[in-house]
């Protein structure tokens, strides 16, 4: 008996959990292309259908940016570390970060929330906001 591919395993999980799709490759690609046009790539955390939720808290502003090129390359990438779009259960994006200005000055908040929300609405991407972060579901139950 042949081993199941990752996609077959994910489709089985989706079926067993009675999940429905909220996004497709076109919408993920539109989101990724739109992110590239923003002043900075916003930080995010992601959960895959076959993975555990991240253990990092994401309810406060962070100092780092998101790597929207390497990890979220969908099925267009041959990179073994890329997460295919079909595997993304949800992604939480925080379209702001803090920039260190030195020891004597407080960190500066860099915020592109308005541009990010405009992008989501232009691409008709369903989302909801939770404490300054934006949840985009690939699948829901």
Account of the protein in words:
- With 141 residues, the chain is α+β, with helices and mostly antiparallel strands.
- The two termini are 31 Å apart.
- The longest helix has 13 residues, at 25-37.
- β4 and β5 (108-111) form a beta hairpin.
- The protein is built from 3 helices and 8 strands; from the N terminus they run αβαββββαβββ.
Short description:
Helices cover 24% and strands 22% of the residues. The chain has 141 residues and is α+β, with helices and mostly antiparallel strands. The chain has one domain (17-140).
State the assembly state of the protein chains: single chain
Report on the biggest sheet: 4 strands, antiparallel
Count the E strands.
Answer: 8
Number of domains: 1
Structural class estimated from helices and strands: alpha+beta
**Morphology call:** elongated
The ordered string of helix (H) and strand (E) elements is HEHEEEEHEEE
Distance between the termini: 31 Å
List low-confidence stretches.
74-79
Mean of residue pLDDT? 87
Question: Percent helix among the residues?
Answer: 10-25%
């Amino acid at each position: 008996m042949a081993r199941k591919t990752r996609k077959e395993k994910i489709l089985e999980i989706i079926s067993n959990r009675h999940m429905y799709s909220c996004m497709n490759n076109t919408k993920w690609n539109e989101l990724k292309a739109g992110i590239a046009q923003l002043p900075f790539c916003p930080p995010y955390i992601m959960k895959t259908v076959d993975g555990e939720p991240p253990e990092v808290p994401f309810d406060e502003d962070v100092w780092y940016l998101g790597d929207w090129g390497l990890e979220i390359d969908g099925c267009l990438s041959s990179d073994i570390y890329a997460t295919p779009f079909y595997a993304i259960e949800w992604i939480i994006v925080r379209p702001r970060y803090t920039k260190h200005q030195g020891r004597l000055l407080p960190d500066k908040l860099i915020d592109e929330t308005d541009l990010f929300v405009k992008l989501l609405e232009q691409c008709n991407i369903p989302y909801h906001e939770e404490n300054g972060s934006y949840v985009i579901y690939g699948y829901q139950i």
